[in-house]
Write a structure and sequence with these properties.
The complex is a heterotrimer. Chain A is mainly alpha-helical. Chain A contains 16 helices and two strands. The chains are: A mainly alpha, B mainly alpha, C mainly alpha.
Chain lengths: 488, 222, 291
């Protein structure tokens, strides 16, 4: 065992991303609360004129939480943990530092550009790929910079073998790069029209069913390589590190990783069930979704087993609580997804609230919980200060857990009910409900979701405050804690 | 073997890439040509309809509306004939959506009318009590961007051979001509059917409100 | 079973009961295969996730970490060389075999056609409901018609059939004398199912008489003035297929197949959307609305 105390790491880029995580988190989830409330109380659509309608705000919500909050959190985890598991400081290379700053500032421009253009209604409309071509180019540059930094650090590493988290970071980089390029093949319309029309407007290279296939090949794998793979990288570092426990099984890590890599890409058809894409592509999507349960659960089980015998840590360390519940919600969403991918179930679930329910099991329970744990574990090491308040963290955990349960149970019931109402026929074989009937029954569930969302947002504000106070006013630490994060 | 890869990041990355790379090609490519074929008699979107489609995208109606009728009896009873791949051959991007807070719109042109849309887009609850759809009053004053729509028509004609007439040509002069000879008259017809004096007056003055273009697009969905 | 697993499963059961109660309130038939498969799926999601996660929670309370550590170590993080959990490994193997079987043997490549399934669904539907309601009574027809009307027609004609103040035909008024006069004067070419009716088929007192007869629902013997009309509409206005619609009431079947252009818009065709019985039901219901 070597001691790590001797190593000094450079956290200047980590700090920058920490602040964007918090800020984008607040903005994105505030918009989430607003759109949840708009469905429950439609009069809330009119605060901001054309910019405040549900339909304009919804993509702002998804983009800000995914590309603002989540990606920032992932970069916090990457710049923090990659240095440590590779045993190399990014500060050792002026060049990599410069790239790092450049990447951050370009990221800030791209993320702000995305919010502004989305608000103005400049969008290609493809979910999770709304950016028009100028932003696409910027994003490619950012991604290439990240790749250079990652492989630069790997090149300089002192630890011969790559730790599990690094596997997942490398996969994130490659997966997103490949998918993003293909999904964004578009022609700016000024090029061929003799300079007519809006300069930023483009048209997709694919049409109709093909466009749908490419888009959901991306959309599904955006879930894979943004919502899942890098978050697994986080948990593989932060849970063993915070708890001081060794990872339960190398073999399980290995099989889960390569299984996930291979299987994920084939499952995208589950977003297009019962559509006009060929039947066998749909069948393939369903089958691979079911197989996907196992490599997904492999990682979660590996993490839960890492904690065996550590009940005391679970009861008295809120960070461990966040991460253990994250694994549980990861299991929930990776079983729920495959079952929603069964054709008969999808016939009910598709288009209904059950899908946003599934989404938020994953993002609120798994992704965001891991991001919170990432920031809070890193903060004492980055700022050399104790975590400001344990009880605040504890309260945040319980409030947000209740929030997630309210969110997912309400959407679960709403979705199943609405899906079945759409199909229901009376004794004569005639449709039983007009469309608006099936909307009006959802009102109570939309209210519950709005309440759950508000609770989650309150928890987030507690987190932001706690984090801010930790960074500025936490008790100073003399030495870096090895495992458990100190908290007041 | 795996442990060796973990010590040789280059090969590790190559291994990951190979593992993930081909799934897309295997599922998408075999049907690429077939899926791109239009059904018989499918007409490309007129410039006005394209402008309306851009409004649909800009105001992101697809966050609540699908355009994909699945082959279930319950769905064909409600919305009409299930959707066919060839009907989407000129849809760039596709607008199937992934959410149905409101009803499917793929054949809404069959059972709604311009004047109904005029009422509905101004205040949905006036025609459907209990609707949660926002009112889109700004579409009655914002002017549709027919120039970008025209640029798109030229682009898809040139790049993908979408069968537009000879009048769709690059350049401003050609655009102005089409605007006068086709787009404005078509818009006037829609505005008249919408029975809204303001809209008619605006179109007569050469400015097409977004809602008129949007209605032309919705009417086209059949 | 340990206490955690019990709690996990209890949560799943409560959630399922709540779901079923809500669904049942909407009079949903859970015997529909799609519906019960969904309910089972939901139960599996909640039960397995919470059950299995709870099992590992239990191990946190009782077990201890053990095994042989690998020699590597990253930033103080070690790794055990533990074997795979058996349940996981066998399930993995199991689903992979199932997947291969399904794709290559169970339902190989093109064995399934969703359109084929749709056709089967429609056939099964026809069989089930057509046989059941083969010879419906008048009052059954009316009820049946009302139920279709509320979902399919009410969006335009209003729940009471009053046409939403002029947005579509007002069935409660029916064809008024003024309107018939107007049609006689101007003709009409709105019903897709018929050629147009030329203007000026009658005028003056003759038109008045004919219109009166039509507005009254063509009851009894037709007045002499109606004979012009009878040429197309039949002796007592019962209509002739492909020539002219019935004037005894609304020619529902004709509008349903070919639609009607109204003064404020267009009624779409509902061709192939209803069975003959359903069309008859709508006919009965719509024509019962006149007050
Ligand atoms: C085994 C893993 C998973 C499978 C097989 C799966 C499957 C599915 C299915 C079938 C849908 C619904 C498609 C539809 O009918 O519209 C879906 C939607 C979605 N899932 Fe998952 N899911 C999995 C895990 C996850 C996880 C862990 C997350 C997030 C952390 C996630 C995020 C999403 C999102 C964001 C959507 C919505 C996509 C849209 O906008 O339509 N999924 N998933
Ligand atoms: C305060 C917390 C949040 C609230 C109240 C909230 C609310 C909402 C609402 C109301 C929708 C629209 C659902 C619908 O169509 O009915 C939505 C969609 C979505 N949200 Fe959130 N959200 C929250 C946090 C998050 C976070 C943290 C993430 C990701 C990290 C996220 C990712 C998404 C995604 C991907 C969708 C699109 C789902 C789809 O298209 O199926 N949300 N959210
Ligand atoms: Ca793009
Ligand atoms: Ca979606
Ligand atoms: Cu997916």
């Amino acid at each position: 065992m070597q001691s790590n105390a001797a190593m000094e790491y450079d956290y200047s880029i980590v700090k920058l991303y920490m602040w964007t995580t918090v800020i984008f988190g607040i903005v994105g989830m505030l918009v989430g609360v607003i759109i949840a409330s708009q469905l429950a109380w439609p009069q809330l659509n009119y605060w901001l004129g054309e910019y405040g309608t549900f339909s304009r705000l919804r993509p702002i919500h998804t983009n800000v939480v995914v590309y603002g909050f989540m990606i920032s959190g992932i970069f916090v985890g990457f710049y923090y943990s990659a240095q440590r598991v590779l045993k190399v400081s990014i500060g050792e290379s002026k060049f990599l530092m410069t790239l790092g700053y450049l990447q951050f500032f370009l990221y800030l421009i791209a993320a702000s550009g995305l919010v502004i253009s989305e608000g103005m209604g400049i969008t290609t409309s493809k979910e999770y790929a709304q950016m028009e071509w100028p932003l696409d180019i910027l994003i490619v540059v950012i991604w290439v910079l990240w790749g250079m930094i990652m492989f630069g650090l790997i090149g300089m590493r002192r630890e011969k073998a790559l730790y599990i988290s690094m596997w997942y970071y490398v996969a994130t980089f490659l997966g997103v790069a490949m998918l993003y390029l293909f999904n964004n093949m578009e022609i700016p319309t000024q090029l061929l029209s003799g300079g007519l029309g809006a300069w930023y407007h483009s048209v997709s290279m694919y049409a109709g069913t093909n466009d749908a296939m490419v888009q959901w090949w991306w959309g599904h794998n955006a879930v894979a390589f943004v919502f899942t793979v890098p978050i697994i990288a986080l948990i593989y570092y932060y849970l063993p590190k915070e708890s001081g426990q060794a990872v339960y099984s190398y073999k399980l890590s290995l099989l889960s990783f390569w299984g996930l890599m291979f299987i994920y890409l084939w499952a995208g058809g589950h977003h297009l069930l019962w559509s006009t894409v060929p039947d066998w592509v749909q069948t393939m999507g369903s089958i691979f979704s079911v197989v996907l349960i196992l490599p997904s659960w492999g990682s979660a089980i590996n993490m839960l087993l890492t904690m065996k015998g550590e009940w005391n840590q679970l009861t008295d360390n809120p960070l461990i609580k966040f991460m253990v519940l994250a694994s549980t919600f990861y299991m929930l969403s990776t079983l729920e997804g495959p079952i929603q991918a069964v054709k008969s179930v999808n016939a009910i679930a598709h288009f209904t609230d059950w899908i946003p329910g599934h989404v938020h099991d994953g993002v609120l329970g798994w992704v965001a919980f891991m991001v919170f744990a990432t920031l809070m574990h890193s903060a004492p090491r980055v700022f050399k200060r104790e975590i400001y308040s344990k009880s605040l963290l504890e309260a945040q955990f319980w409030i947000q857990t209740v929030a997630v349960v309210l969110y997912f149970t309400s959407m679960w019931i709403a979705g199943i009910t609405q899906g079945m109402m759409w199909r229901a026929v009376d004794e004569y074989g005639n449709l039983m409900y007009s469309f608006i009937d099936t909307v009006n029954v959802l009102h109570p569930y939309w209210v519950i979701r709005a309440v759950g969302g508000t609770l989650y947002f309150i928890g987030l504000l507690m987190f932001a405050w706690n984090f801010f106070m930790t960074a500025t006013a936490g008790r100073k630490l003399e030495t870096e804690p090895q495992f458990r994060s100190p908290m007041a | 073997m795996f442990h060796w890869l973990e010590k040789n990041p280059f090969f590790f990355a190559v291994g990951v890439f190979l593992t993930i790379a081909f799934a897309g090609a295997v599922t998408i490519l075999p049907h690429f040509n077939k899926s791109a074929q239009p059904v018989k008699g499918l007409k490309p979107y007129s410039v006005l309809e394209l402008a309306g489609r851009h409004v649909y995208i800009k105001d992101n109606c697809l966050s609540c509306h699908s355009q994909l009728i699945r082959p279930f009896k319950a769905e064909t009873d409600r919305y009409g004939q299930y959707s066919l791949s060839g009907e989407y051959a000129y849809d760039r991007p596709f607008l199937w959506g992934s959410r149905r807070i409101g009803p499917d719109l793929h054949r809404v042109g069959n059972y709604r009318t311009p004047d109904w849309h005029a009422n509905h887009m101004w205040e949905p609850t006036s025609v459907v009590p209990g609707s949660v759809m926002p009112a889109y009053k700004h579409q009655f004053t914002n002017i549709a961007d027919t120039e970008t729509a025209y640029a798109e028509a030229v682009t898809v004609k040139t790049a993908f051979g979408v069968p537009y007439g000879d009048d769709i040509q690059p350049g401003r002069a050609a655009y102005e001509k089409v605007l006068k000879s086709k787009v404005l008259p078509e818009a006037l017809k829609i505005a008249t059917q919408m029975k809204n004096k303001d809209l008619i007056a605006r179109v007569k003055a050469g400015k097409i409100p977004e809602v008129v273009a949007l209605t032309a697009y919705l009417e086209r969905l059949k | 079973m340990n206490a955690f697993v019990m709690k996990g499963l209890a949560f799943a059961v409560v959630l399922m009961i709540a779901t079923i109660v809500v669904v049942k309130q909407m009079h949903i038939d859970l015997n529909d295969p799609i519906n019960w498969i969904t309910i089972l799926g939901a139960l599996a999601i909640a039960g397995l996730s919470f059950g299995v996660a709870a099992k590992y929670m239990g191990q946190m309370k009782t077990d201890t970490a053990s095994g042989e550590l690998a020699e590597e170590n990253w930033d103080g993080i070690g790794e055990y060389k533990n074997e795979l959990p058996a349940g996981w490994a066998y399930s993995y193997l199991g689903v992979m075999i199932w997947g291969l079987w399904y794709f290559f043997m169970g339902y190989p490549l093109n064995a399934f056609s969703q359109i084929g399934q749709y056709n089967d669904e429609v056939q099964a539907y026809q069989k089930k409901f057509q046989e059941k309601w083969n010879n419906p009574s008048e009052s059954t027809l009316k009820e049946m018609g009302e139920s279709i009307f509320l979902v399919q027609c009410a969006p335009c004609h209003g729940e009471t059939g009053d046409g939403l103040s002029g947005k579509a035909e007002d069935f409660t008024k029916g064809r008024t004398k003024a309107r018939v006069l107007n049609i006689i004067k101007n003709g009409q070419n709105a019903l897709g199912a018929f050629p147009g009716m030329p203007p000026g088929m009658a005028s003056g007192a003759a038109a008045e008489k004919a219109a009166e007869y039509v507005a009254g629902g063509c009851k009894g013997k037709a007045p002499a003035e109606f004979s012009v009309c009878a040429g197309c509409h039949g002796k007592t206005g019962e209509g002739k297929p492909n020539v002219a619609p019935s004037l005894k009431g609304y020619d529902v079947k004709a509008v349903l197949t070919k639609g009607k252009t109204g003064s404020i818009g267009m009624m779409p065709s509902f061709v192939n959307r209803f069975t003959p019985v359903q069309q008859k039901a709508l006919d009965v219901y719509v024509n019962s609305l006149k007050q």
